[in-house]
Structure formats: C-alpha cells, structure tokens
Fold:
Amino acid sequence: MHPSATITQQPEGAQAPYAYRSMQADSQVSEARELAGSHILCEALVREGVELLYGYPGGAIMPFYDALTAYPMLRHILVRHEQAAAHAADGYARATGKVGVCVATSGPGATNLVTGLATAYMDSTPIVAITGQVARPFIGRDAFQETDVLGVTQPITKHNFLIQRIEDIADIVHEAFRIAISGRPGPVLIDVPKDVQLGKATYRPSASVSSIEYFRSTRTPQPSATAIAQAAQLIAQAQRPVIMSGHGIILSKAYDELRAFAEKANIPVITTLLGLSAFPETHPLAIGMPGMHGPAHVNRAIGETDLIIGVGLRFDDRVSGKASEFAPHARLIHIDVDPSEMHKVKPATVPIVADAKAALTALIAAVEPGDHSAWIDEIRSWEAQDIERIAGIKRDQEYPDPISIVDAIRKETDGEAIIVTDVGQHQMWTARHYLWTRPNSHITSGGLGTMGFALPAAMGVKMGLPDATVWVVAGDGGIQMNIQELATLKYYGVTVKVAIMNNGYLGMVRQWQQFFHSRNYSETPITGPDYTKLADAYGLTGMCITRREDVAAAIHRAMEIEGTVIIDFVIEPESNVYPMVAPGSAITNMIEETAEVNAGHD
Amino acid sequence: MTNETRSGVPHPAGAPHPTGAINRAPTKDSVGRVVGRSGQSNAPQGTEHAYTLVMLVNDRPGAVDRVINMLRRRRASMQSLVVGRSELPDVVRITVNVNDSEVEFNHLLEQLRKVIDVQSIVNLSPAQAVARELALVKVNGTAETCSEIIELGHFFGAHAVDVTDETITLEVTGSEEKVEKLVSQLHKYGIREVARTGCVAMTRGTGDNEVKKIED
Structure:
C-alpha cells in the first residue's frame, strides 16, 4: 500500500469530531463541545479549508500531532527539515493562491522555519506557521527547547500570536488566516504553548468567524474615482508609456485585466522577476524583464519612458538600480494594495492604493483606446540590434548550454509546466529565456533570494496542483541545500523533475568576483555528489548529461520515467548572465556580453 | 546602596560599562543640550523635522513591542517614547517623538499603520496640540540655598517633592522648553539627577487632526 494511503484512511463509523457536524441545522444546542486545545486547533484548521500541512513533530507540539490522527482531512506531510516545510507551504500558496500551512515544534523546530518565513514575507505569500511552545509556566525560564519565537519572527512575519488561553485558539487561528491572505499577503505565525494544547475548553464553532466567512461578507475596496480619472488623463497624454507589472498581478489573478488594459491603451508590458508569467511573453506587447539582468532594450525603454504604470510591484533595488537615476523622464502611476509602497523608491504622480484587479478594471473603463506603435517599434528596433550583436558572439558548442536546457523543457512541456527555480545564474537564465505563457507558471524566491528554495517549494506546488508538470531548475550549489527532501518526494510519491545546471561554481557569486573582484574566485568553486548515484540512493532516477546534443533527449526521457527524476547537466563552468547592471549603478548602464573566450573545464 | 547609584550618575562618559556596552557621549548643541541621536535615521542631515505621533494600540501581548520594533527597523530616530493607558479599555496610547525627514516619516507612518495591533495613528502638529511632560529634578541644596531653589521652582510652577539635608527634588510639568529652562536655571546648584517622562500630547478642542491617508 502506498504510504499516503494509510494516512488518509478513516476508520469506519468513527466519530468524526470535526466542524462539519456542528454546521448541521439541528445542532444549535449540542454545538458546544468540551475539547482539548489541540483538537480545537484542528477544528479551526478544518474550518479554514486546510487540506495539507507540512511539518515535523517534536516535544512541544506533540499534543497537536496526537489530535491530528483524528482529523484525516488534514493531510500531514512529514518533511525532512523544517525549513522545507515552510518552503513547501510557500510553494503551495504561490501555486494555488490558498494559505499554505507548516508546523514545527518549539526551539530548533521553530528557528528552522525562519528562512522560509522570511522568504514568504519578502515575496508576500500567505502562509500560516504553527509552532509548539514550552508550557506557559516555563516560558521565559530558558526551558528545554524554548526560544522566543515571537521575538525572533516579529520582523519577518506580517503578524504573530502567542496563544495564552485555550478559549482564544479558534479566534486566533481564524484571524491568522484572515491576516495572511488579506491585503498584501504574508506569513503569520501562531505559537501554541504545550499546556494550551493539552487543556480543555468549550468549543463553539459559530462563536468565531472563519476567514472564508469573513471574506464572503466583505467587499474589495474600490480605487478612488479621482485617482483613476487622473491616471486616465496621464495615460492619454503619455507619448512613451510602459506598464510595469509585478507579483501583485499574480496574487490578485488579474491576468485578463492586465492584458485587456495593455491592449486597449496599446502600451508595452514589462514584467518583473516575480511578475513573470503574469503576461504572456508571446504577446506583441510583451517586452521583457527589467533591472539588473533585464535585456538592454527593456532598461533602455525605462530610461526613455515618460510614464510608468506600475501595477503590484515595489521597485526593488534589483529592478530600479540607482534609484535617483531610475526612469528620469517618467511620471508614475503606482497601483499597489500596500500604501507603504507608495513614494518609497520613486514618488508617484498618481498613487492608487487598491487591489490590482479592481484598479485595472477601473482603468480599462477609464482609458481611451491608444496607439503607441511608433514607440513600440522603437523598442523593438533596439531589441533587434541586440539580438544581432549577440548572434555574432562565438560560444562553446559542446557543453549543454543553459538556454538550450530551458528551451528543451519548454518545448517538451508545451510551456504548460510550472517551473520552480532556485537562486543564482540558472534563475536568471530561466527567467530570461523561458518564454512564459501559462499564468503563474514561474515560481522563485525573488526578494530574499533563498538558495535551497526550489526543491521543497516544488513539492508544495506539485501537491497544490497535482495535474501540473513541475520542473525544478536549480544550480549545483542551491540544490545541495534541502536535498534531503528527495526522501519526502519519494515517500509520498510526489513527482517533480529536477534539472541541475552544474558548473562546479557558486556561479552568480563567481560572476560578481569576475566582474568586481578581479577574478579572485574566493570560495566559489564547489563540488557535489554524483547525482545519479544520489538519486539511486533515494530510490529515484538520475542522469548526467555532458553534451549539448543530448539535452532534449534527456528532458524527454525524464518526462517518460515515472516519479522524480534528477538530471545533472554539466554546463560550461564560466558562463555569465548578460547583460548585467552593477549593483548601485543606473540600470541603463549595462555590462554587455563581448566576444571573450570562456575557459573550459579542466 | 552605593553612593554612585544614589547620586544617579551611573557612569562617567568613557568609563567601561559593567555589561561591556560602550558609553557614548550624546550629541550636544552649542548650549550643551542633547540634540537628536545621531546615526539613527536615514534622513540626510539637515532635512529632519520633529514629529509627534500618537498611536492607539490594542493591549495584546507583544503589541507595544511590535510598534517599537518597527521604529527600530525603519531606523526612525526616536527622541522620546511614552506608553500608557488611554480612555478605552484594552487600548494603549503610545506617544512618540521622532526626528526624521518628511519622506522617511511618511513611509514610517504607513509602515506603522500596517502593524496589525495599531488601531489609529495621529500626527500632531505643534500648533494644534497640547504637549506636556513631567520632570523630577534633584539638585544639591543646603540650608542656605533651599528656599532660593524652591522659590525659583515656583516661577516654573514646580514644587518640591523631597527635601533632605543635601538635596531638593522638584517636580515640574510643562512643555519641553519649560522643563529645559528650569533645568538650565538649576545648573548652578549642581544637578544630581533628572528624570523626564517624555511628552504626552493631544489636539486642542474637538479637532482630531487625523493624518491624511497617502492617497488623498
């Protein structure tokens, strides 16, 4: 029997203690029940529609794990490291738009979640973390496995709670979910002392409002009509406008609105790293990604534009470069649900604090059909010059080339796969050269740049979207962080395909050393295991590809083999990501690829 | 009790702190007043303004901590901070004086507004607000100077709350400037200790002086 099958099995005729029962009409009187805190916690999670939890048990969270077996609809995935639980919950949340849930014990369990929480916080993804805490009388006494998790996670969560009374559990859980997903989403942590889990209290489901019920009864705030009118006026006046779209489009699922707006106003669309796949790159108005590794024509367009319509992005320093020289001729219409993003990097001429979908819907109605074909042609001519120049550069033809790997994955999956990338050169190559068409098919750690994110996040993505093909693209550095999750993937029969771009270096750091530290490759050469053997040891399939002509066939084989497959692509060791803007420099000031000869493998 | 702590002069500037912390001398202006706390703000020098923020915050575990933490994370230069009860049950009133540039300050406001437990924030302009602080000032006083000090205090509405053979402690309430004036007048007698509460403030009359939302 498959291991997961035992978990979801429910004993025949078992007294289901969960909330559905109480929702039945006749149970007004019998609704109140005496339950242990850990059961109330589970009841509240069920009411929030939670299906999956990623976690790892330990002393202070044991009562919760004890209760969990009575709630088969809460499927728990035992990860091999708590960090992976947080990333998996994050991946699940990004792929599905629902709240991801992770669980850990007190002390080291909770501190292992920290990187995952910080990742979710920087990229505004909704996750709820539940951590055990030592019993209330021990708090503050340096008890075994006690950590001030509230203090530790305060700057990297949207909010966090320490449950002090058993009676508060349900309310706090519902509030946590509401906070996680409302407005600008983010991670929320709930710290539950062991004695609060063990103690009993009266549980009355109707006494607290679940986030689902809450959102049913509230309406999305509409953007101010004055602001929309001002924005429409600026758009009508603009000669060289651009739309910059970010993660907000994906979070608010405003794909159709973005497209309709861009088409009606005829404005070219730039997508940030986290905005990739929000707008189809095959569309004639799509021009690419901005910033540090954006193609030259995009950064040049930003340098010359007279109006930026920024939707759901925060003008991160990797996008804006030197802020004082960012888009010097442009006025800014800034649409974001978070008012604290307004004027932060570039003062907004028209700030619109609203959900991207609501604001774009209003803008579509407010703008007149536009024609900016001359401006778009100009951008395209810059792009053509670039393509021509790059075509003239001689490259290594033997090693699998990063772009050929990304291309092959796209062709093999018809662009329908979800691609989860780690952090570094491979992340930029994939972002730039995979032609994104399926909405929300690009998942990466953008803001925090967390190496080790891809593999566990992909597990969450695949479990959230079981019908999708999920590919991990990672470097040989990042894949070794959280490699232990191969065991989890194997155990639960979760299939993700892994492409490792192995250049024997921490490539992005090496590239910086090449450009800014006179090729002093300090601690960037890195070795790894034999991935074929490693895959085999985990009961999975591995391959090693060293020649370019074998790339497409390997990708094809990986798709045919059942289960998780790891392909180790040995790529050119000193390939660089071009173009590149030096940190702190204006984005129009790019380091371009030249006809330099790259060193081969030893 | 050692003489050192009784006199309230914990450590002379530059002396090693018992916990290893470095005791830096505060930045002072030409007349010797402590001005701002250097190195704490991102604001370019000379662009700072003083702002008085009044926040109503849910009295929940960690709520005040969260507000203070936000001020630290956004490198707001805090001049004074008062935490106390308000007219509402379960609501704490926090009054904080911040020195910052306008741009940074507006960003800080929006960041604070995002803290879940913050119910409301008001930015009080000095013209529309009543701001008061209370100070206890302990000076050296002998039989000869005692009545002179008490009389001087009367000019400032201060009264003596503790008199010993060697010391007189005055209590004064008023604006920051008034407290500073009294302290400077008392310098000649030898100040042993000054304890100031920091400003609490509210609007005059019925005006609520609510900070305008960034969009308006």
